[in-house]
Specification:
The chain has 306 residues and is mostly helical. It has a single domain (4-305), classed as Rhopdopsin 7-helix transmembrane proteins (Up-down Bundle), CATH 1.20.1070. It is 73% helix and 3% strand. It contains 10 helices and 2 strands, in the order E-E-H-H-H-H-H-H-H-H-H-H. It has helices spanning 21-26, 30-60, 63-88, 93-117, 122-128, 155-185, 187-222, 228-252, 266-292, 298-305; strands at 4-7, 10-13. A two-stranded antiparallel sheet has the order 1-2. Helix 2 (30-60) packs parallel to helix 9 (266-292), helix 3 packs antiparallel against helix 9 and helix 6 packs antiparallel against helix 7 (187-222). It starts with a strand and ends with a helix.
Length: 306
């Protein structure tokens, strides 16, 4: 039986209401306590993998690639921290979800810079490929762009490609900032207006992903041995697991009522399960990223040359 309570003049069923910190930690259940313990272990494991990855990168790469590669590998512990904070502070779920969301957009920006670092810079890429035409009918816009001809890369066109990726952190960050402000001040308004922001979020992500895919395929044609597709897949998993999977499970688990009455209710159990799953997945993705960033090996090459 659902019990309704008045929260800021907005009636919310108690199974969907987030408890305060005091209520949450006063009424902890064995499941939540165990989940906090497991989530802490998974976070420590993820941080340990990251530290190992950084140590290996420092042995293989010089500074121009080292800092960007470390930044890319740091995204997975950041997502894990956000998942743990959601379990520890259920009311902060939207802030933590925003951190996961923006981790992908910032990662896309950094990864594009890393791709052009592999060929020194954009101008050097044009020289190295002798201005060979580049196909732009790539995912996720391959279906609607099949009729578009290949494009000869120039400095201006590569600049446009860069801006298509750069818009993601700014557009997505602005939208999520507005949504967070609305949610934590007036939840009823958030429920009514959130859907109108979805088209802008989707369009921004599609444009950014399209430009990033073009960039990866361009550089991959020159340095296929660097495994850029594997690195790109590791980055995309943040979006798929931290955003798409989150939203799907968030709606699907409402069909299975879990937990008890307020404060440790259905919403708390649902968020705990989703974030435990994300934490376990981030450990696996961190290992995938560690494998992906094994190449190139700059320092070893220099030693052999001397």
């Amino acid at each position: 039986m659902e019990v309704s309570e008045d929260v800021d003049n907005f009636t919310v069923p108690s199974i969907y209401q987030h408890p305060t910190m005091t209520e949450y930690y006063t009424h902890l259940t064995p499941f939540i306590t165990l989940s906090i313990f497991i989530s802490s272990l998974l976070l420590i494991l993820n941080i340990a993998i990251f530290c190992t990855t950084v140590a290996k990168l420092r042995q293989r790469l010089t500074k121009p690639l080292l800092h960007l590669s470390i930044t890319m590998c740091s995204l997975y512990p950041i997502v894990s921290v956000a998942a743990v904070v959601t379990i520890l502070v259920p009311k902060a779920w939207l802030i933590c979800h925003t951190v996961m969301h923006l981790s992908f957009t910032v990662g896309a920006l950094v990864f594009q810079r890393l791709c052009f670092r592999y060929v020194d810079n954009e101008v050097n890429y044009v020289k190295e490929t002798d201005g060979a035409a580049v196909a732009i009918n790539t995912p996720p816009c391959c279906c609607c762009c099949m009729c578009l001809p290949a494009v000869i890369p120039t400095k201006a066109k590569l600049c446009i490609l860069r801006y298509m990726v750069w818009q993601m952190p700014f557009v997505q960050g602005s939208i999520m900032l507005v949504l967070n402000g609305i949610y934590y001040k007036e939840r009823e308004l958030y429920t009514n207006v959130a859907i109108y922001f979805i088209p802008f979020i989707i369009c921004s992500i599609l444009i950014g992903l399209w430009a990033l895919n073009i960039t990866v395929r361009m550089v991959n044609s020159v340095h296929a041995e660097y495994g850029l597709m594997k690195k790109m897949f590791s980055l995309q998993l943040i979006l798929m697991l931290g955003k798409l999977q989150y939203l799907i499970l968030h709606s699907q688990l409402d069909g299975v009522i879990m937990g008890g009455p307020y404060p440790i209710n259905h919403t708390v159990y649902k968020q705990t399960i989703i974030n435990l799953l994300i934490l376990a997945e981030m450990v696996l993705v961190s290992l995938l990223a560690q494998s992906a960033y094994k190449i190139p090996v700059q320092i070893a090459t220099k030693v052999n040359d001397t």
